[in-house]
Design brief:
By secondary structure, this protein is an alpha/beta fold. The chain contains twelve helices and ten strands. Strand 2, helix 4 and strand 3 form a beta-alpha-beta unit. The longest helix has 18 residues. The relative contact order is 0.14. The structure holds ribulose-5-phosphate (5RP).
């Protein structure tokens, strides 16, 4: 691995835990103004100090994040289809490596749709993006997207999608937690981080997901809705950090959540 690429990889992971807490705020690229991300700048600002990396598109980066921010940027560079279509796999690369360099990205990210109608294009796009990333010294994160078929999130499918992504040169992979997740980890030679998926039934459920993912070999999380759709986003992010970096139990993380919650507003 070239020095620049290795340096960018290391910037995203805490040296002590060798894990990362990425904040995912890229949903608008295909979902539009997602609930509680309508004003992306307002959602992101209080969370940035507690994120090891910020995963987003160039549009939101340029419009909603100050260039003074020291946080490494994971730039989403794929898109081209919206939730208005059933087949979400018809994506292409929508941002050039030259723009990723201009934006000082620590990594670029694209969705990979294994088993979907546009599997071939998405895998070829990944290969091309890795070529461009290697040339620029910028790591590539493959995101094993499941489109609208959330039931696809099983170990057999995700192990296949993660391994194929790594074989094509992805330097890290974002995937989903699933039963049998350790099989996904075993088959993937590059670090894995897990997404949270749609909002779970409680903050505790999201903390449990993170705990299990770390226990079974994930190198961190790249989580969105279960943080900023929580009623206590900053407290939630701090609780997740305790799990990912300090190996806190779910109970200890719940204590962090309780102690960091904003006090209830005084009655008028
Ligand atoms: C959208 C994404 C998201 O970044 C990813 O799913 C993580 O966010 P969440 O935890 O809300 O699922 O890749 O395509």
């Amino acid at each position: 691995m070239d020095w620049g690429l290795a340096n960018r990889m290391h910037r995203m992971f805490r040296p002590t835990s060798r894990n990362t807490v990425m904040l995912a705020v890229d949903h608008g690229y295909f979902m539009g103004p997602t609930r509680r991300l309508e004003d992306a700048g307002a959602t992101i600002a209080p969370l940035v100090p507690y994120a090891d990396a910020l995963a987003l598109t160039r549009g939101i980066l340029r419009h909603a994040v100050a260039p003074t921010v020291p946080t490494p940027i994971v730039l989403r560079v794929s898109g081209g289809v919206t939730v208005l279509h059933d087949d979400l796999s018809h994506e292409a690369l929508t941002t050039s490596m030259a723009d990723a360099v201009r934006l000082n990205a620590a990594a670029v990210a694209m969705s990979v749709f294994v088993g979907a109608p546009h599997e071939h294009e998405s895998l070829v796009n990944l290969g091309n993006l890795v070529d461009a990333g290697e040339a620029a010294g910028i790591p590539v994160m493959a995101i094993t997207a499941v489109g609208k078929e959330l039931e696809k999130r099983d170990a057999r499918y995700l192990a296949l999608a993660c391994r194929v992504s790594a074989e094509l040169g992805a330097h890290l992979v974002k995937t989903y937690y699933c039963d049998g997740f350790s099989k996904v980890v075993e088959g993937c030679p590059v670090p894995l981080v897990v997404a949270g998926g749609p909002r779970l039934e409680s903050d505790r459920a999201a903390l449990e997901l993170a705990r299990r993912a770390i226990d079974e070999g994930a190198h961190g999380i790249d989580m969105g809705r279960n943080i900023w759709q929580s009623d206590h986003p900053v407290a939630m992010l701090k609780a997740l950090r305790a799990i990912v970096h300090e190996r806190a139990t779910v109970g200890e993380a719940m204590d962090v959540l309780a102690s960091e919650r904003a006090p209830a507003a005084a009655p008028a």
